[in-house]
Amino acid sequence: MGRLLAESGFGLVYGGGHVGLMGAVADGAVSAGGHVTGIIPKALFDVELGHEGITELKIVDSMHERKAMMANLSDMFIALPGGFGTFEEFFEVVTWSQLGVHRKPSGLLNIDGYYDGLLAMCDHAVTQGFLREVDRALIIADSDPARLLSTLSTIVVPESTKWLSVKQT
After folding, report:
1. Structural domain boundaries in the chain
2. Tens-place pLDDT, residues 86-136
3. pTM, whole model, 2 decimals?
4. Residue 135: how many CB atoms within 10 A of its CB?
5. What is the tens place of the pLDDT at every residue in 136-160?
């Protein structure tokens, strides 16, 4: 995914760590000549989790500040397979879109059906009347990284009056 982003002219904004899946994505983007901005809370940086081999590493005071800065610097959001933190951050940006805080597309990279259960839960919320179909449509899922990136880069989020711009690096 990191190489794909860089080769497609997209920069990466992420949580700033050097470990795990996102550390590998950052390494892939850097190795392909991409611009990578990491945003990490001081507490995580202090326990040596910060990735110092990326283009830019911003150290902030809190997770809330990190998420707000990441959202402000991003033009779209893609969640890779992950745990509670990934779910929470993904649903926060989708909720912000639903509420009109931003008009940026959100996607799930659904590798090997990882997000099938989560997508079924969202569909169930629609059938139960807790989620409108137009809001469910805010979540785009695809198992192919290139296709997901292409789709997200051309989406107009409902109620938007213009096409979304994507930062080219």
Report:
1. 1-74, 75-156
2. 999 999 999 999 988 888 999 999 999 999 999 999 999 999 999 999 999
3. 0.88
4. 18
5. 999 999 999 999 999 999 986 665 4
CA atoms within 13 A on the CB side of 96: 18
Pure H helices in the chain: 2-7, 20-31, 42-46, 63-73, 84-99, 116-127, 133-136, 145-154
The CATH classification number of 1-74 equals 3.40.50.450
Statement: 75-156 belongs to CATH 3.90.220.20: no
Q: Which two tokens stand for residue 2?
A: 């990191």
Q: How far apart are CA 121 and CA 131, in angstroms?
A: 10
**CA separation for the pair 142, 152 (Å, rounded):** 10
